[in-house]
Structures are given as C-alpha cells and as structure tokens.
Amino acid sequence: MEIKTIDILSASETQLQEMSKKYLLSLNLEEMLVVQKYFKDLGKNPTDVEIETIAQTWSEHCKHKTLTSSIDFNYTKIGGKPQKKLYKNLLKDTIFKITKELNKKWCISVFQDNAGVIEFDDKDAVAFKVETHNHPSAIEPYGGAGTGIGGVIRDILGVGLGAKPIMNTDIFCFGPDNYPQEKVPKGVLHPKRVFKGVVSGVRDYGNRMGIPTSNGTILFDEGYIHNPLVYCGTVGMLPKDKAFKKVLPGDIILAVGGKTGRDGIHGATFSSLSLDENVSSTVVQIGNPIVEKKVLDTMLIARDKNLYNAVTDCGAGGFSSAIGELAIFSNGAKVHLEKAPLKYKGLQPWEIWISEAQERMVFAVPKNNLEEILKIFTDEDVEATVLGEFTNTGKLEVFYDSKIVCSLDMKFLHDGIPKRHKSAVWNEKKSAVKKIKSKNLTNRLKEILSSLNVCSKEWVIRQYDHEVQAQTVIKPLVGVKNDGPSDAAVLKPLPDSDKGIVVSNGVNLYGKKDAYSMAVSAIDEALRNLVAVGGNLKKTALLDNFCWGALDTPEQLGEIVMTCEACYDMGKVFETPFISGKDSLNNKYKLGSKTVSIPPTLLISAISVIDDIKKCITMDLKKSGNPVYIVGLTKDEVLPRVDFENAKKQMTALQEAIEQKTVDSCHDCSDGGIAVSCSEMCFSGGLGMEINLKNVPAENIKSDEAILFSESNSRFIVEVRKEKEKDFNRILQGANFAKIGQVVKNKKFIVNGLRKKSVIDSDISELKNSWQKTLGNYD
Amino acid sequence: MSNYKILIEHKDNALDAESKGTLKDIIDLGLKTVKSIKVSQIYEISGDISLHEIEEISNDLLVDPITQKITINSDSKESGIAIEVYYKSGVTDAVADTVHIGIKDMNIDKDVKVRTGKRYFLKGKLSSTNVKNIAEKILSNTVVQEYVIRQ
Known about the structure:
The structure holds 2 protein chains of 2 kinds.
Chain A (H helix, E strand, L loop, with lengths): L12 H10 L6 H14 L5 H10 L2 H4 L6 E7 L6 E5 L2 H4 L1 H8 L4 E3 L6 E4 L4 E9 L1 H6 L1 H17 L6 E11 L16 H19 L3 E8 L8 E11 L12 E6 L9 H4 L18 H16 L5 E4 L4 H13 L2 E4 L12 H6 L5 E6 L4 H10 L4 E7 L4 E6 L2 E7 H6 L5 E7 L13 H10 L7 H4 L10 E3 L2 E2 L5 E2 L3 E3 L8 E7 L8 H19 L6 E8 L6 H21 L3 E7 L3 E4 L2 E4 L3 E10 L16 E5 L2 E2 L8 H16 L3 E6 L4 H13 L2 E5 L5 E2 L4 H6 L6 E5 L4 H8 L4 E8 L3 E5 L7 E4 H10 L6
Parallel strand pairs in A: 1-16, 6-7, 11-14, 22-23, 28-31, 30-34
Antiparallel strand pairs in A: 1-2, 3-4, 4-5, 5-8, 6-8, 9-12, 9-13, 10-12, 11-13, 14-15, 17-20, 18-19, 20-21, 21-26, 22-26, 24-25, 27-32, 27-33, 29-32, 30-33, 34-35
Chain B lengths: L1 E9 L6 H12 L5 E14 L3 H12 L5 E5 L8 E7 L6 H12 L6 E13 L3 H12 L5 E6 L1
Antiparallel strand pairs in B: 1-2, 1-3, 2-5, 4-5, 4-6
C-alpha cells in the first residue's frame, strides 16, 4: 500500500493547472485555488485519496457545474431589441422553477434522489431515471452500453429505499451506418460497429436482468460519428412509504454486490474531458448482469423487512460518491478501505475508493439488523461487507489498515465548490423555408420511408425482450402483423388493477440550427407520442437529458440557456413538471488541432399514470369506412416551433376524445410528416387510406409536397370510429382539426393533391417494403 | 500444474449466428475475399487439475452437446488463419468468473486459473495487412483486449 502526498501548498497557479491535468482531476484553476486554500488553512498537504475525493465530488458529472452556474444572458429575438437576463442558477431559475411553480401533489420526490418519483396509486409510486453513457460507449460499445443500462437500473434500485425495475428505455444517436470506412479517423470505431455493439450490450444486460426494454429511438447523423450518444432509462415501482431515506449516526456502511477492481477509474472526471485516440483500459467498465440481478432480488427482500435506513448505488466516483452522499444525512462517516472485497491484489487505497467497478450498492444498516440482513445476502451468494459506519462528526474519514488516508470536512467537500459565473449570448436566426421539388411524390415518400431515421427498427427491437414480467400492454411493435411502429409503451404493473404507466420520448436534430426549436419540438414529440396511445396529460412528468459538445463560447452556452427556457415554457403551458434530469457535456473529439462536437441534443422522456389501460389505443388502422382526421395546423417551416395555446388545446381535446372511445387509431406526425404517418398507419393495419390535401388545415402552403412532408409540431392523424364521429367533432370543437379522408378496403394509399388527383398512389405493401428494407436483414 | 485449452464451436450442421454475423461484418469492411469464418469460444484453465476433471467440466458446464463440439489441447488440422482475442490482464472477465463458480458448484475443489477468449478461424485469400485490419477493426477492441494471429 502506498499513500502519496500531493504538494499543493507550494504550487504556483501554473503548477496547479498542471496538477489538475496530470492527475485527471478536471478541476479548473479557481477550484484548484480553493482546494489549495483549504489545505493551507489546515497547514498540511493533501493525500492522493483526499485530492481524488474532492475531484470526484466536484466533477461536472456529479455537481452539474455548468447548468447550475450563474449566467449573464444577452439575447435578441428577430425584430426585437437586445435584452438582458441574469440567472443566479440556470437550472433553479428554469427547469426546477417550473416544477416548483406547478407544485403537483402527485410529485413525491423530484431532483433530489437517484430518480424522480411520482404517485401511482394510494399505495405505490413510480420512479423514472434516464442516464447517459456516451464516453464509455464510444470506446467499448458493448461494455459501455451494457454498464450504462446496468448503472441506470442501479439508480432505480437506489432511489428511496429501493424500487423494483419494471421497464427499460433506450435512445441512441449514431453516425450513419454506411459511412465510408476510410474516412473514420484513427481511434474512432466505425458507426456500424458502435451501433451493433451498443445494441448487443443493452440486449445482453437488460434481457439477463429480466427487465423488458419496451421503448426507444435511434437517430443517425454524421455529427455523432466521433461521439455516439447512449441514453439508458429505467422505470421502477416502489411502495410510497419507501420513497425516502435517512441515515443515523452509528448505522453500518454495508457494501453489497460486485467486487472492486481497477475498472472504471476516473469515469466521473473522464466524462468531463474531450475524447482523443489515447485512452486507457481502466476507464472501461465491464458489466456482469447476473451479479446485479442477485443484488436486486435480495435487496427487495431486505427492504420489505425494513432492515436498512438508506441505500444508494455506486456510480460515478464509486465508493467516494456513494458513501460521501449518504454521509450528508448523518454528517460524517468512517470507512475502512482494506475491508473492501477486491477482484485482485495490488490496488492502491485511492483506486479502491474511486473505482467505478460495476454492480455495487451501499447500504446504511442499523447495528441491530446487521445479522439478519447479512443472512439474506449470504444465503443467495451475494457478497456483503461491512466497510465502516456513519457518524455525526462532520468529517469524512477514510482508513487503510488503521492508518488514516483521508480526513475531509463534510461542509467543505459538499458546499466548498466555488460557483461558476458565465456569460451567454443568443441571437435568434430566421429559419429559411425548405425548397425541395420532387417530380414523383410516391418515390419521394418511399425514399423517406427507407431513410435511416424513419425506417423500421425491428431488427433492434426484436433483440430486446419487451415482454418479460408480462406487463407490457402496448408494445414497441404493433398492428396486425406486430411490426408497426408504436408511439409509446404502456405497462400494467399490478395484476389486480387496470391502472397503467405510459412511457414515451422525444429527440431530434434541430439542435444543429436552433436549440430552442429543438427543445420545444422534443417536448412536443414526447407529449404527442404519449397522448397518441391514451396518456393522461394531467398526470405526466418529464425528464430532461442534455448532451452537448463544446461549451467554450458564450454562443454555445446561449444554446443551453435557450433549451432551459424552452423546458420552462413548455412545462408551463402543458403543466408538466420535470422530475429528474442529467447532463453530459463535453461530447467532443480532438482530431489533431480540431475539435469536433456533437449537435446539441436534448432527450425528453415522458411518463404518465393512467386510470384504465383498456382505453389505450394503437396506431394501426382498424376498419375500412372509418373517417380519417388531422389534428393540428400544417405550416411550411424548417425549424418547427410550438404554438403553445393551440397545441395544448389540441392535445387535451384529443386525450378526451380517446378517453371517450371515439378514436380507433391515432399516430403522431413527426419525421416525414403527414405522408409518413399515414403510410405507417396503413401498412401496420393492413388497410388502405385515401386523403385529400385540400382539406388539410395549413398556413401559407401552396404545394402538395410541403403539406405532405412538413414536420410541424402538435399534429396527429386520427382514425375516428364512424359511429362516434359526431362525438369526436363535439369534443374537438375549438381546436385545429379537419376531416381529410377515410380508411379504404383496397390496400392502397392514395393522396389527392391541391390541384391534381392522386399525387401519391401506392400499394401499402410497397411502402412497407421501403420502410423495412433498410435495416431488414442486418446481421 | 497443467494447462488446458478448451475450444467450443458449433457443429457443422447447427446454425451458427455468431460466425455468420462476423463474416458479414468483414465483408462490410470491404474484404470480400474471406470465404468462411468459424468462431470458437476459448476457455483456458490451468492448475493442479486432471484431464479427466477437465473433460467433466467441458461436458457438464461448457458445452451444449446438441449444437456444439469440444476440442481439448489440440489445434485444428485445417489450413487457415486463426485470430485469438483475449481480455487484457486486469480487465474483468465475467465469463471466467462464472466458470469459477460453476466448477465450485460441481464440487471440484481445485484452485484453478480461468481465462476466456474467442478464436476466429478464417479461410480465404488475405494479406497480413488485411488480417491485422480484421483483428483490430472488427474482432477486438485494443483498449481492453489483445489479439494473437496464428497462421
């Protein structure tokens, strides 16, 4: 064993910066100076364990320094004068603020634990968390994605006193799979290899854990070649009275699950750096789902016997973060690192302390319960080890063989980080009007159906078990042949109740041009998908996941500010609180002297609790003769915005119409607009449709093509039950909507244009073939 | 102290999805001269353990006798190029850990070392640069794995 002392007291400013770089601390000069002052006041140099503890606790990954910084914001809207705004704390002044203002009684625990928790019924609650695992997946797609899903499952195990995972959701962004191999730079894996590796990693971990993967999306764009994005989410159920944790002084620190090794060292600080071709194997984590499954099964037994006061997962920063965070409750902890079970000999104390080896949880157990809880774990061959105890001394004290290797004040560790102050700028740009001229609209439609971002993802979905636990009511693939694209997943988590959970997501590429447009569109899409299957907007919560590239200039920061503003605006309009979020910044790659960044990407995940799953509907056409309606206004826009008032009116009215059983099928309009939406409804239901573009409510559009392919927000194609048409019209009154056609028996999709008849005329089997062939036979 | 190298591969008449998928990946890379590929799972077990015990472990723990076959300590006599991929030392080998537990559960109380890997047996016209490309771009990830080429 070796404890190094780091000579920080005599270091100059330049040396401090070098030190931060050399030890991968990812702390800036201001932070290093605060650390230096702390140790100057103590009159001693820090040990390597102490400096690593501070770096982990203060990492961007754990502290969200950028999103919580104070910001001077200067912005100009089109045609407006320059304006100023000051944020004391960007997140608190936007996303947290709307949740606070809405003050929904059904929100149980928001932005404070490992996941957001909302009410399900009188007894139960639902927890939802979405994480990213981008850097590890770029380097080792299989292991990175597997441990990504493993990590977010542990977040659910570690929320409150532990929730039972009931569903996973996965959203990926990759480079185009047909990108020329010779153009892929050294040190970067080909997008196809990343794609296949990530999918198999999620498949193997999720399936082996016995958790269904029932929702997801994949975006392809050249912006993600160097830095793919892997978002993993998990939904869990827990009793309402188990939603909060506490830690009392004297509680035993119990480490449960996997052994500690040198894998995943510096993950938390590593994720705050740009990637380049030189990476070490120690930042890669290797997963073992069987170990985690055993932890899951045993800990829920211990939870229901009330054997522990608190639990949390070892994620970024390993023991240092997990024990450090629980120690806040009791105000201190004493840890004996030599007791930690190791995968092999030779680990230094600081490595044991911050290793991100997988499948580990930390419990706070009252002394009297120790024997009983240890028996539950050891009976099932789950390793459980006492590492020390929680105290109220105000100090985090770490020992190795009775020698003290770290002693830090809790107050300094958790509140000592200097606040960042930044300035941001945003100038609204006018969005150009799309000018495409296709001669043959049927061929154009087929092209769009075959494009990577629209085509069938069945090859991916079929690898995931989406049925295990037998609760998935609306599945990712629906329709007469179970191969149509579902808008959202619906779960029925309790055997004796028809109450359900709806989960959907929204993500897009508009961030390349306009962050505000991206964010409102992502939220609109998530809500649209949710409403389309029968979700309840009155009980819907949102999760935000920011993935950004470089954030060096005020303009780049301005994009984040506008995204937060969009979240506030949409939350306010739809009265949907945010309950959890996460950010992954620095998704950039150093190519020699150039830095390549991803397009700013906001993923919005939505979760809704509904009273009766029997009222849910799917997107496939059901019956010939039924009238087809469109809800929402079609505009000629490249960067779609949301018309707040109308959007809300449309969605709430449609929700009511679905609840009153006037709708047989419903599908949202997104990529590829009305044309793609109608095509998908046709070939999923095995029925034809004839629509008239003249009847589509549109603004400033004069061409068939623009109406068919416009991607305006807040729109739905609705197949209304013929005998309920009057009721539907009554319920939708006051919203933008119109009848545009009907379902027909012959298996053809026919579109009559503004001036000409049948501008599209195609067999639905041909459309389906175009949609399926791209990833159809992928192995 | 003995060393055993156990190879498990699919029988010729059984569907071998992994080999098929890997072949497609190589062709996608632009190397159309590869004629066939056979993937085997490698288990290296060393320690004070008898061949009889190794056979028992192979038959009862490692192989699916209906679709797979076992070779112990002997390389294929066919001609071709074999690329073997292993985790670097220090990287968690979860399959090896599970084999350890399995051996214990079989009541074989021996202190053994286990390492797992994959062997890719390629046939076709390939230059040494081609082989290196296949090894590094498709079969291994050199951040956590190392590979050996055997001709």
